Amino acid sequence: MVRRQRSIRIIATLGPASNNAARIRALYDAGADVFRLNMSHGTQADIAALYAAVRDVEMQVGRPIGVLADLQGPKFRCGTFEGDAVDLEPGQKFTVDLDGRDGTSARACLPHPEIFGALEPGQCLLLDDGKIRLRVESVGPDFAETIVETGGRLSNRKGVNFPESMLDLPPLTEKDRTDLAFALDLGADWIALSFVQSAADVAAAQAEIDGRAGLIAKIEKPRALGDLDGILELADAVMVARGDLGVEMPVEDVPGAQKTIIDAARRRGRFVIVATQMLESMVSAPVPTRAEVSDVANAVFEGADAVMLSAESAAGDFPVEAVTMMDRVGVKVETDEHYRDYLETVRTLPQQTTADAISRAARQVAETMGATAIVTYTTSGSTASRASRERPTVPIMAVTPNLATARRLTLGWGLTCITSEDAQNFADMVAKARRLSKAHGFAAPGDHIVVTAGVPFGTPGRTNILRIAQVHEAD
After folding, report:
1. I want to staple 327 with a disulfide (CB 3.0 to 4.6 A). Which of 31, 48, 176, 190 is the partner?
2. What are the tens digits of pLDDT across the range 24-68?
């Protein structure tokens, strides 16, 4: 069984460059812990084939592997233009409307009526990933008159963003609902929800998922930052989707937003992923830029649970090399003399519960005793998640009888997930923890481990026991 030499986890997106079991195995061996299925691309048959390939690799390596299904969410695009493109000049007037005719340098079709109900004078519209900026002067039920603030060439069907508008849209489109049902039936461990504007969007999606997978709220709109606490209350994890954030807010504000989201997630005890353009140059180059390496390193220093590759592993020329580089950066940062200092700047706020008290004590006891590992018995995953959010200095072995729980926990910082039959009694729990920690290389004879569990066994959310155990030669 492969034991990672880092605590931060790596998510690799699958696509044309990584669409078979052999390549997925290579990505896993290079360091990928979770694989992302992008529901925006490919048919259901394509997605099912990728999922099956991941499970083939899981069988080969004998270790749980997580699968994340990322829903597309609403997509807004302008219509087509006479001659396929127009040039817009700063200061000129430009109208967007529902007229389906080809656009000109004076107007364009925006075939989304719900947008006009949300726009207000003074707000901005962003076209083509923010390259063109329009300022709304007046708006009606089927048009908006604007002034071009940042001009440029605008071609057919470019994307449109509305950073200052609260769109009255359901969190799941019809495509999302179909994709969600399909992903859940496949067995996806995590569902990533796009276009989150508020906690209400998360609540609606959680009702659809109904506990069959963990929910990741993608923070890609500035408005979501205004309801971040509410979103974190309801989501199981959050993703810092910096690509879309960087379109809808000034790019210089994105690093601060990233740190705000990571800190808030860690205090709330939610998994947090940093994503988008982390090693973008490796789509076409075998080595990243120094700035990209620093970017990945900063996410590790800030204590994120996972970092994610998108096009680098899905469609790039060097997918395995990209995962290898991310793995190397993670290992290097976590052995840096400053790492723990940065990591300790944010601590999870424990609740006044036995479970939180035991989880915090496990870290302190492990460090005081010089233990080599913390072993957590977990049914639902809550015990292991609590251990992870404490960010201990020793590895965490999450032992569960539930394969679905083990797969979901692969996203968690520092968690090595192992499936095993539940302990029969207290003595069996301690003996099994000693055997497993020795068998998987977490402890040698004479080493101490710290064991946490809940009694009665098999009862979710009941972490109430802490035990120090010494590993023996006979284990």
Report:
1. 31
2. 999 999 999 999 999 999 899 999 999 999 999 999 999 999 999
Is 218 a known active-site residue?
Answer: yes
Q: What is the DSSP letter of 302?
A: T
379-415: pLDDT as tens digits: 899 889 999 999 999 999 999 999 999 999 999 999 9
> Considering 276, 376, 405, 410, which one is annotated as catalytic?
276
d(CA 300, CA 370): 24
Which residue, among 295, 190, 205, has the nearest Cα to 239 in the 3D structure?
A: 190
DSSP 422: P
Instruction: Give yes or no: 153 in active site.
Output: no
Number of neighbouring beta carbons within 10 Å of residue 416: 26
Which entry of 218, 268, 386, 407 is annotated as an active-site residue?
Answer: 218
Pick among 3.10.290.10, 2.40.33.10, 1.10.10.10, 2.60.40.420: CATH of 82-161: 2.40.33.10
Chain centroid to CA 259: 15
CA torsion angle for 113, 115, 118, 122 (degrees, to 10)? -130
Q: Where are the beta strands (DSSP E) in 115-270?
A: 124-127, 132-140, 143-150, 152-155, 160-161, 190-193, 214-219, 237-241
- Active-site residue flag, 432: no
